[in-house]
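Next comes this protein:
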Amino acid sequence: MPLPCRKLSPVRVVVLLCTAEILSMTGFATYPALLPLLQDTWGLSNSAAGFVSGIFFGGYMAAVPVLVASTDRIDARRIYILSTMIACAGSLLFAFFARGLISALLFQAIVGAGLAGTYMPGLRLLTEHFKGATQSRGVAFYTASFGFGSTASLLLAGALQTLGWRWAFGLAAVGPLIAGPLVFLSFPPVSPKPSEAKQVALLDFRPVLRNRPAMGYILGYAAHSWELFGLRSWMPAFFAFSLGLTHSHSEPLFAAVALAAWVNLLGPPASILGNEVAVRRGRRKYIMVVMSVSGALALGIGFSAPLPIWIVFALMAVYYMLVAGDSAALTAGLVSEAEPGRRGASMALHSLIGFGAGFVAPLAFGAVLDLTGGNERVSSWGLAFASLGILALGGVFFSQLRRRKKMV
């Protein structure tokens, strides 16, 4: 049963859900953090290693339509606690039974399916407590917690890798085990009105597809996710490559993971600040500017690997802040444009398409590395990062083209 407190203050709502989201994500970045180690251990190609990173989002995509759309019909807390158990099981299975490519793909997909039922259902719980500008700020802090969660996961995996990669995956299962009961016991039931639940077919996304303002934010989120998740999946490996060119570090993997974790910490404040600017200056204009600059920077950042590591780190920090800077603005825009009674379905499609791009991006990044000479060549890293920026720039181009056609 939930705790007797039925009236939750806005601060308490945000703190509880952000804390739970960070805990639920302890297994999120375990594989990317240990990618160089596991790639060498199992003899994986760059494409195969990227496929394992991407299949996390494949599992997310498979589960998110049902889990998130179901929040229009049943209590979101029940979906949340079920999904934390799925995430916990995925990390434990990886720890005890992963032996190579096939098993890693299966277990990573299970962890991804767990995230599908925590991230957006948690956002659904949050939006039930806020309206207007307060809702937008609440969404900004919640989406920022995703960045803190990924950072915590990176640091945890990096710290535990000396015990062995199986320990890193096994202990990553503890966070979701705590997060599920925390949410279930802290919030009262959140169920839709019976009249709304009857009107909404579980997997009927046609009304959302017809909502043009909402679809604009959903497609923008896809371009954002392509860049963000491709970057997150390969950033530790890129830092390890750069360190190998310029340093003889005794623990290059730990140093690379630490650098990536520090960069990840810049994402949450960038997302929160970005949403504030978007509210004041215009959401669409802000998103277009940020996406254009991040896409342009992606075209050159991979070629920076031979430079001193502090320059590489600084460039990557700026790039990551730009990529993360429109995250909350896009999600808050989607929530504001979602139709009453279809908020869960809108969030489900938002996640499905966005994380679908996140599924393909790490695989495409690895394929570019393989096709252009491998991950020991600076030019290959440069072209792989450019593949992330091209989609972002393409999204801006087609958005502007569409807008001009409307004006004619």
